[in-house]
Specification:
elongated; single chain; 2 domains; 7 strands; five-stranded antiparallel sheet; two-stranded antiparallel sheet; Beta-Lactamase; 243 residues; Arc Repressor Mutant, subunit A
Length: 243
């Protein structure tokens, strides 16, 4: 029996599959690819029509050199709005344990190195104590992201990290709370990294607060980023409370 699906629900379904495929493949996604990978109950022609509708609504864009489509900032924003935090933060277990018998600075450095390497993003931390502290790690991993093969985008990224790092510091010190916050593109508020996204999560423990962030391409695995930050945050809680 043919599937009966509301047109809006079908659009959300196809958008979700395009985004998740694009995150994995880092290339434009076509209707044939979706039908073959996900064994959809629709024909490629039907999927193509839905994708055209999503493009008309500015959720997808159509690179001139490809028959496939990629998500826009608006598309990523809608996708993220549909994610449920309680499911997102538990989807990817964190395979990392904070080392014992080490100083806090060493622990923080090792932890941020893990976050950066595991996610392929830049890891950030802000500590609120007697002295405020802001640390970042992993800019080298962004070099492995296809988006930054474009030398102009790469220069803009490192300009932001060098000259406008204060804007990222502000977000971690003032905008992170105990719920996952995802800023996409222009929402970060820094033109040079408007092609990126920032995932934030904070914690308040015994009068000392801290926040964690992952800065990566807009084409990031948001569920993985949120899961990793959540898992690391819980491990850091007791340590920060002892400062």
């Amino acid at each position: 029996m043919p599937r009966t699906v509301d047109s809006k629900e079908r659009e959300k379904e196809i958008l979700k599959l395009v985004i998740e495929s694009y995150v994995e493949e880092s290339k434009p996604i076509g209707s044939n690819y979706l039908c073959e990978k996900y064994h959809l109950g629709y024909s490629p022609a039907t999927v193509r029509l839905v994708m055209e509708t999503l493009e008309e609504k500015n959720y997808l864009s159509h690179p001139h050199t490809s028959s496939g489509r990629i998500p826009t900032q608006k598309g990523f924003t809608l996708y993220v709005e549909c994610l449920k935090e309680e499911e997102m933060v538990h989807k990817y277990p964190v395979e990392f344990t904070i080392p014992a018998n080490c100083g806090f600075n060493e622990v923080l450095s090792d932890t941020l190195d893990f976050l950066a390497k595991a996610s392929g993003c830049i890891s950030l931390a802000a500590i609120f104590g007697k002295n405020k502290r802001f640390v970042s790690r992993g800019a080298r991993f962004m070099l492995e992201q296809p988006e930054f093969e474009d030398i102009v985008k790469l220069k803009q990224l490192f300009y932001a990290l060098d000259v406008k790092i204060g804007e990222l510091e502000y977000l971690l010190f003032h905008c992170a709370d105990e719920h996952v916050k995802i800023l996409i593109g222009d929402e970060i508020g820094c033109d040079e990294i408007s092609n990126c996204s920032l995932v934030l999560l904070g914690e308040k423990e015994q009068g000392i607060s801290f926040s964690l962030g992952l800065l990566g391409p807009m084409r990031m695995n948001y569920e993985k980023a949120a899961s990793y930050i959540y898992g690391i945050k819980n491990q850091l809680k007791s340590l920060v409370g002892e400062l």
